[in-house]
From TrEMBL:
SMART domains: HAMP
Subcellular location: Cell membrane
Entry keyword set: Cell membrane, Kinase, Membrane, Phosphoprotein, Transferase, Transmembrane, Transmembrane helix
SUPFAM superfamilies for this protein: ATPase domain of HSP90 chaperone/DNA topoisomerase II/histidine kinase, HAMP domain-like
Family annotation (CDD domains): HAMP (cd06225)
Organism: Cohnella yongneupensis
The protein's name in its UniProt record: Sensor histidine kinase
Bilayer-crossing regions: 13-36, 288-306
Entry's EC annotation: 2.7.13.3
Taxonomic superkingdom: Bacteria
Length: 581
């Protein structure tokens, strides 16, 4: 390992990365703890909302059932046959008595069947000394029940009456004479087991239990045996407390409880749930939170070591190599087997050293001057054959006296020579280069208008402003005329087209000269090794200039044309600023 001075080590990239990691990871740990508590509070609140809504619905349904029972009870109280039975029993014969009691039994049975919450319906008739019920028909008068419900009827405290640890509804038919006992009392007993069954349906979790309570009458039932054991503890825990939701502890176990009260029924329904059941969905979160803390501490150690080994140490090696290079050492090479980012940097560093050494050896400035002299040489070359043919065309036009075409031809010829001989800037807009090439083609069309057909497409607008070296298109067209089209006995074809993408622009020159595949392959081979070629042709000159300016991927590409001749594609790779060299 490398040693660092104590005063500078804290300023290194290693220390900064580790501190940055700690600054990032500690808030994440604290956020995890906050999210755990927040999730628990929200889970409790959501549970309470859902439970309270369920309890309210339960009491609403129960209240509707009680309302229905009371309507039926008062309807029975006003039943004419029942009142007749209570008042005229002594005047009835045995047949009338049997008929009346059978009717009353049937009526009570129907009332019992009208609600699942009714266990039995009794009518206590003092005048006949009988009690008629839906379950037991006619039997001996129930003196205790009659007296109890008679006393409760005078108090009129609650709708539901707690009698023999069961809920009842009771109403009496008064005789109309003050101080006399009621003619009869209608008593409806609610089915406690049905209430227990309904309470078992009121739960959000399997562990939850329910209670039904009446503090004024002292009535209470639980959904099962376990909840019955919790009733006393619950009553003591919530006694005197306000609110629908609370927590209470029994034998060290905390419970979450929700309660809803109905003033109409003077009843309260409540559910309780162990706190562990509420936290159970978050239990894995808590485990993972502690695992995350432990993993984070381990990750800090591993991260520190990895950062030192894979970042800090390789970076120091690169810095030291740069310092040696600044001292003039160009023969150093960094060895690095891993194919990572530092491997790429080391490879480029090694390549830079090799390239720098090569540039120093080859004298880069001299190479640029040679390239410029090659361009000047190409500019100064005027094809004698083309010049001779131009004068021949001019002579022929003079003999015919076609002054208009002579004027047109001389203007085109002058523009042609002006473009190739001017000594201004080396790079021009592609629109100017294409204009010069089109003018050259027009000159040739005067000579070969009958033998050579030319298709010269319009230059796309997005390619006009691209700056290119001068004389890269016209020499290719000239080459097609000189080596292919002039020698053809049948009709020749020349086609110049354009293609462009955001990354590349292409100018395509094609003919139907019938070049062989071997010749195309040989030409491509010469272009690929243009730097080693001692023979400087126009095509190699163009390829080298484009390659030098635009880099790898640019230059000339030779292939077979669809016209069955040579297809020369001038490829220009566009840089970040499209349309500029």
């Amino acid at each position: 390992m490398l040693n660092f001075p104590a005063s500078s080590f804290r300023k290194t990239l290693l220390v900064r990365l580790v501190v940055t990691y700690l600054i990032f990871i500690l808030p994440v740990i604290l956020l995890g703890m906050y999210l755990y508590n927040w999730s628990y509070r929200n889970a409790s609140q959501d549970l309470s909302k859902a439970t309270l809504s369920q309890l309210s619905d339960y009491l609403g349904d129960l209240n509707r059932e009680i309302d229905w029972m009371e309507i039926q009870q008062f309807d029975l109280l006003e039943d004419s046959d029942l009142n007749k039975l209570a008042l005229t029993w002594d005047m009835m014969d045995s047949v009338e008595r049997r008929t009346s009691t059978n009717y009353l039994v049937h009526r009570l049975t129907t009332l019992k069947s009208s609600s699942a919450y009714i266990k039995d319906v009794d009518v206590h008739i003092r005048s006949i000394n009988k009690t008629v019920s839906a379950s037991n028909a006619v039997h001996d008068f129930d003196e205790d029940s009659f007296n109890y419900f008679r006393s409760i009827a005078y108090k009129k405290e609650n709708r539901l009456i707690n009698y023999n640890n069961a809920l009842h509804l009771g109403v009496s038919r008064q005789s109309g004479i003050k101080g006399e006992e009621p003619l009869f009392i209608v008593q409806i007993e609610l089915d406690t087991q049905k209430l227990k069954d309904s309470l078992r349906q009121v739960k959000m979790y399997p562990e939850s239990r329910s209670f039904l309570l009446s503090e004024s009458s002292g009535f209470s039932i639980g959904s099962d045996g376990e909840s019955d054991k919790m009733l006393q503890s619950y009553m003591e825990a919530v006694k005197g407390k306000n609110g629908n939701t609370s927590m209470f502890t029994v034998e060290g176990q905390r419970y979450h409880i929700d309660e809803v009260h109905s003033d109409n029924l003077a009843l309260s329904v409540a559910t309780y749930l162990p706190e562990e059941a509420v936290k159970r969905p978050l239990k894995k979160f808590k485990t993972w939170a502690w695992l995350f803390v432990f993993t984070s501490l381990s990750a800090i150690i591993i991260y520190s070591f990895s950062t030192y080994r894979f970042v800090h140490k390789p970076l120091l090696l690169l810095v030291q190599s740069f310092r040696r290079m600044e001292g003039g050492a160009l023969d150093i090479q960094i060895e690095h087997e891993r194919k990572d980012e530092f491997g790429y940097l080391y490879n480029r560093f090694n390549h830079m050293l090799r390239k720098l050494q090569a540039l120093i050896d080859q004298d880069f400035k001299q190479k640029l001057m040679m390239q410029r002299s090659e361009l000047k040489q190409l500019q100064s070359q005027i094809n004698p054959h083309f010049l001779y043919n131009s004068f021949f065309i001019l002579n022929s036009l003079a003999k015919t006296g076609d002054l208009e075409r002579i004027e047109q031809f001389t203007i085109m010829l002058g523009e042609y020579f002006r473009f190739i001989t001017r000594n201004g800037e080396d790079n021009v807009k592609l629109a100017e280069e294409i204009k010069h090439s089109r003018m050259y083609t027009e000159i040739q069309k005067l000579r070969f208008s009958r033998r050579i057909r030319v298709q010269f497409d319009e230059l796309p607008k997005d390619m006009e402003a691209i700056r290119v070296p001068r004389l890269i298109i016209q020499p290719l067209i000239e080459n097609a005329y000189e080596h292919c089209l002039e020698k053809m006995t049948e009709e020749g074809q020349l086609r110049v087209t354009f293609e462009s993408t955001p990354a590349e622009a292409s100018i395509i020159v094609e003919d139907n000269g019938g070049v062989s595949d071997i010749e195309i392959e040989a030409l491509n081979e010469r272009l690929a090794h243009s730097n080693e070629s001692h023979e400087m042709t126009g095509m190699i000159n163009i390829h080298r200039r484009i390659l030098l300016i635009y880099g790898e991927g640019s230059g000339l590409l030779l292939s077979r044309s669809e016209l069955n001749g040579l297809k020369v594609t001038v490829r220009i790779k566009l840089g970040e600023v499209e349309g500029h060299v």
